[in-house]
Amino acid sequence: MENIMPVVSKIFCSGAPTMLMIRRRPIVVNGGGFVVTDLSQNVVFVVDGCGILGSKGELLVKDGEGEPILIISKKGGIVQALSTRNKWNGYSLDYQGKNKLVFSLTDPKSCIAKSAPIRIHIEPKRHCKNWNFEIGGSFADRDCTIIDCTGKIIAQMGKKDLIESKDFYHVELQPGCDQAFIIGVMAVLDNIHGESTRC
């Protein structure tokens, strides 16, 4: 597995292409968020939003055993209020409960900057200049891709065949891609678009 790209942890990287299924949970029933399964219907990740956590701009990614592995928070404050972009920071959680910044995602928030791409920066800094990953396409239409700074597609989202619902969709990940990181990005996109992780 020479192309391994761990962001959260190498234990979430597979040597083969991986298909993950995402099912949104209703806010009124289960507090929102979504459940991620593999093709055998085994739960591999659970994402909780403010319906469970009780605060806006906070997301929690848990593994299939229910252990927290990634906490994502929307940056606030005066500097952020004056910025043309929102910033989200993703922190991995170690076995002692310590947080370590692993990525930052910026999305345009004004109508002037809406055409600007959503970009992701990995911590610690890697070989790319200004950004490591970029999101293209439409999350709302369940048709988007995540590309690295060389233009290679590392993850692609699509609608689940035979189901005409935005509550079910899939993400196909390339070999070596960190699944927990990609699910964290999907959680932020879900929140940005006012879906199941947002109150």
List keywords for this structure.
199 residues; single chain; mainly beta; globular
Instruction: State the order of secondary-structure elements, H for helix, E for strand.
Output: EHEEHEEHEEEEEEEH
Question: What's the total number of strands?
Answer: 12
Average pLDDT reading: 82
What strand order characterises the main sheet? Answer: 1-2-3-4-5-6-7-8-9-10-11-12
Morphology call: globular
Low-confidence runs of at least 5 consecutive residues:
none
Quickly count the helices. Answer: 4
Share of residues in helices: 10-25%
Q: Gap between N and C termini, in Å?
A: 40 Å
- Biggest β-sheet, characterized? 12 strands, antiparallel, barrel
Q: Structural class given helices, strands, pairing?
A: mainly beta
Tell me the Rg in angstroms: 16 Å
How large a portion of the residues is in β-strands, by DSSP E? 35-45%
Question: What does this 3D model show about the protein?
Answer:
With 199 residues, the chain is mostly beta strands. It has four helices and twelve strands, in the order βαββαββαβββββββα. The chain has helices spanning 27-30, 50-53, 78-82, 179-192; strands at residues 18-24, 34-37, 43-48, 58-63, 68-74, 85-93, 99-108, 118-122, 133-138, 143-148, 153-159, 168-173. A twelve-stranded antiparallel barrel has the order 1-2-3-4-5-6-7-8-9-10-11-12. A hairpin with an 8-residue loop joins strand 11 and strand 12 (168-173). The longest helix has 14 residues, at 179-192. It starts with 17 loop residues before the first strand and ends in a 7-residue tail after the last helix.
